[in-house]
Each structure stands twice: as C-alpha cells, then as structure tokens.
C-alpha cells in the first residue's frame, strides 16, 4: 500500500511558514472529527468528539441501585462535542469542547448566515441535540429533542430557508403506553426532524418497514422536496432505501435497492445538474469493500451505477462536486491490520482519475471533505500515531490533484493589517497607528480632563466600537500575539508639589486611566472572550514619561490619554 507519513505541523517561524497543511490535534484519550466546512473568513472549521476525564470526590454512600450510582459519577468522564477552527497558517484559532450535563457526540457541522454554526449530534443516553453557536464558538442555544426511546443522529443537513434537517434513527415503539421492556427492544425506524433558522421545531416524523430501518443522510432538491438515504436490514441482508418526501415530510415515493452482498451507504449529494449521487461500499466476492457510486434523478431513475474495483478494501465516507462536474471523495483503504485515509478523484462520468493514500502504519481515516473557494479541498478525520492506541483529530488541506497543500507562506504585516482595519478611525482623526503597533487615541473628545480618570460617555462609545474591531483581530492572530498593553498617560504638571510627589501622583493617575479603560472593555465582553483576554491584557501607568511635545513645549491636553500597544511573540 502506498503510504505517506503525515507530518505534524510545527510553528517554525513567526511571520513565514511553509509545510504540509496537516494538523493533528492530540487531546487526551480517543478523539475524532466527523464533519468539516469553510468559514466566510476563509478559515476551516471541523467538529467531532474529544474524550475527557475528571476526578470526582464521591461521598461515602451505599447504593442499592446501579442506576443511582452511575448517575452520581455521570460527569466524571466521557465524550464531548468539539469544535476546531484553523487559519491559512495551520494555526488553531478555536479549539474548544462543550461540557454538558450529558455526554454527547457531534457528527455534523452547518454554517449559519452570520458565520456561526449549527452542530448536530446526540447524547449517549439516546437523545438528539443541536447547538447554535456564534462565529467565536459561543453557544447561542441548545436544543435536546427526540422520542422516549433510544435515538441516534446520522447527519444534520442545511436547508435553503436557513434551517436544518436532522436525520437518524429511533427504536420502534411497540406500545402506545411505551412501558419498559415492551419498547426499546424492537427494530429501528428512520427519524427526521426539521428546524427553522431559530431552532424552532417545525415537524418530526418517523418512517420505516417492519424490519430494521436506519436513516443515514438526506439532501434538499431544487423544488424543496427531500431525498432521504437509509438502510433496511433483515436477517443477513442489508438493502439501500431511497425515499423522497415533501418539504413537510410527507412521503412521495420509496425505493429499495436489493443487494446480494452486504452494502453500506455513506452519503447522498445533489449535483449541479439537479440529479443526485450516492456513495456506498459493498462486499465483492473476496469479501472486500469496494467503492460504488449510484447517480439517479428526482423520479428514482438510475442514470449511472459504477463500482470502482481497487486492490485493497476501500470506501468513500463523503463526496463533493467541483464546479466543472468532477468529484472528490474521501474515506478509508485497508490492507490487513492497517487502515489509511483515502482520497479519490472522478470525472463527471464517475470514472476514477486518481487516488492517494495518507497515514501511518496504524489507523487513519477521512470522514468528511469540503471544497474550498480556491478549489482546494479540506478533509477531516482520525489520525493515530504509530504504536499508539489513542486516535487524534486530523485536518488536511488538499490540492486539486489530491496532494497535500502547503501552508500559507505570506508574511503577516501587522501594521498594514491594522491600518486597513481602522481606516475609518484614522481618516476621522480618532487614532494614529505607529509602526511599533502602538495605537494612540487622538480624538479631541477622547482625552481626559485635568486630574480625571473616569470615562466619559463619548469615550465609552468609542471604546465599544474600537474593541469590536480590535478583539476579533487579536483572536485571528492569537498565535502571534503575546500581549495587549493598555497604557495610561498624564501631562507633567501637578500643582505646587515637589518632583517626587509630582511623579508619583501622575503615576497613580495614569494607572487609574489605564484601569478604567481596561475594565470597561473587559466588562462588556461575553464570558468566553473575557477568558481569552485574561491571557493578553496588560494595564500600566506611564505617568508623564511619554508626554506629547509640540516643538519645545508640551501639549498638555494631548498628553492626558490612553494608548494601546500590541506585543508579538
């Protein structure tokens, strides 16, 4: 098998980097990524699970019921939904897990119009869950839903109205009374739930046969109807089932694809010609997985049914279409005990053009792929170090020929970036930005009055709009930034006092000006942003050591100010 050892990206230079764009995030225990997308700012986001352990102090108590004991330690360890965001330099700009009252796993990521996210997943006790996040990964709301039985989500699909469709499976209810042991031991049904953009449930429906039915994926057609991919299993057989419903979930048609061998569907997508493509794997006569692609139209007519014969067992977990009709698929390829990540390229007639295998001599797999705006692609999945038993979150950027892309080599000019960011404030003579990345507040209504340090309404208004630009900038380049200084300044006079008293009184005043500015900005940020700022903010008073001079005399009004300075690593 063709193997390429993936390099873990290391920070080698502050301003210029060149390396394979392969990011491995090694959290404790087993971790994985299941979906990936591109953000509106060009960065890449991916979601999945990370596992955590927390020591708990259990009080001495005797339990007569095992369920009571399990409840008492329910928050001590388990899986959490996890979100990553990565910039062009392969730096993590967001890396956070979501601690909830129940262990949960994320399986899907959907962008919102405001550059935020919907994350779909499920709790390990059988409930379904969606989270809506802002662009910084802060939770806007959480919705837990489902039946009284055990439910499992397979995907979360974005709809044209800004809402989402959750697809999965739910254990069949055998009794209207839903009593214990009369339910929960039966077969599964397909389960769909539709939400609007505000997370309000519009409808929830179940579908299925008398056998074991499981919802796998879904996609919205051009007319608003929904195509659902699922499986129907009975005995040793597993068939692929396609269903079309109206936008309200009413069934239009259903079709079973019977197979003589075991078949596993992974993905359904809508193509640019308004037809649809399914990615599956089925067992050949050597009992090896082979990639199979089926193209069909809205009226369930099969247009292509192609099997990609490969030397090793292979499957495509996700597939996407380029603007020219060609396709990229990602998944796995297996040889004995070794599993590598697989990338395949196809033309519009589903002929395979090229394939690449990536990974070490252990377990590596791509679970999802997204096509980027520059025609590169980004894949997310699992990477396992050689001789390791713990899996890691893995993101790779790919070129059009399926080779690994390089990280950006563009040097960051922080001065030019700041000039562009604050061009309006500069043009209106509110601030001046210097080459050393210091930002002086020069607006007439931004100076302090003699001996004053409390902020005026005009100062507060400016600091609010100023911080709304500066803080996201700091987050974007947080890998490079060491600190943000907020410095208070004074003029040099102080009544009829000696030199020592004059300096010390002005030093205290300058520190108060720094503190009032820092505290106002800090208090008006959400909790997650406050946590970020605690690692960067640095307040200081410089007395009159940086007083503003006009020729040989001091401009006392302009000396009474605060300034900001960005310090780089």
Overview of the molecule:
- The protein is mainly β and 569 residues long.
- The chain has a domain at 414-568: 2-Layer Sandwich (60s Ribosomal Protein L30, Chain: A), CATH 3.30.1330.60.
- It contains seven helices and 35 strands.
- It has a five-stranded mixed sheet.
- Strand 10 (151-158) and strand 11 form a beta hairpin.
- It is elongated.
- The two termini are 42 Å apart.
- Mean pLDDT is 87; it is low at 1-18 and 178-185.
Task: Look at the structure and give the mean pLDDT.
Answer: 87
Percent of residues in beta strands: 35-45%
In the CATH hierarchy, the architecture of the domain at 414-568 is 2-Layer Sandwich
Proportion of helical residues: 10-25%
Provide a count of the helices: 7
- Kindly state the number of beta strands: 35
CATH superfamily placement of the domain at 414-568: OmpA-like domain
Q: Largest beta sheet: what is the strand line-up?
A: 29-30-35-31-32
* Major sheet size, sense and barrel closure: 5 strands, mixed
- What is the oligomeric state here? single chain
Shape: elongated
What is the CATH class designation of the domain at 414-568?
Answer: Alpha Beta
CA-CA gap between termini? 42 Å
* Structural class designation: mainly beta
Radius of gyration: 29 Å
CATH fold topology of the domain at 414-568: 60s Ribosomal Protein L30, Chain: A
Features:
7 helices, four-stranded antiparallel β-sheet, 60s Ribosomal Protein L30, Chain: A, 569 residues, single chain
